[in-house]
Amino acid sequence: MRRKLNILVLLATVAVAGCNTTGGIYPDVPVDKNAGSSANIESLTQVVNANPNDATAYNVRGTAYGRAGKLDNALSDFTQALSLDPNYYQAYANRALVYRRMGKDQQAIADYNNALRFKPDYEVALIGRGNVYRQTGQLTRALADFDSAIRLNSGDARAFHNRGLIYQAQGQHSFAIEDFSTAIGLNPKAPAPHTGRGISYLAVGDANAALEDLTVAVNLDKRYASAWANRGLALEKLGETTKARTSFSRALQIEPGNDIAKEGLRRLG
Predict the structure, then answer these.
(1) Quick one: how far is CA 10 from the chain centroid?
(2) Which of 33, 74, 183, 268 could form a cystine bridge with 161, CB 3.0-4.6 A?
(3) pLDDT confidence tier of residue 137, bands split at 50, 70 and 90
């Protein structure tokens, strides 16, 4: 049945597929308010109504809801997709992402586990589950998932970036820098690995290299508070106090609770 629906789904999701947003991290499904526009949802709902027993229709509309940040609607659609097709591993991974955004880590892990039960080499689920493990402090498990994802696809920048974050958290900055560099080579327009590498350069005492990376990051995403704050640290270490204050202040404009920026301005007076 899914194959029969492909043409309808393609027509209904043009608005979704054509929209991208930038952000400080690699988002699994970027928030895009246009994806949840009344016109787009109405189009997708027509597909659902025409194919009420097809899991793909619900999965596609759920993705649009998720892209728009309408998490309750997305959760409902993915759950309906899975009730129609309990083997639908993509819907498990999509619902897991919704659970992650809701802060429901255990439910997310359970759904990623189900996705991997039906498709053990599903890279999206490995990276997603690895991120939940990383964010909940289960670094060994996270590292294993990112290693598996890299073995499956050595061209996925997200896996290298996320593994770099693990190495960084463990204080293994040379390994982190190597992984961030690989991620940058694979996706040079993503600000997150530039920021990650900049932070690790700061940790090993290379403020010049850190400043270069962090400047690239803020140029790629003007609202990336972490990059602005760490750029302030690099400028402070290089004795550029006026520019450091500007970077710290910019970080606080975006994220008033940013501790790095607050402490930086306090030190500089």
Answers:
(1) 24
(2) 183
(3) very high
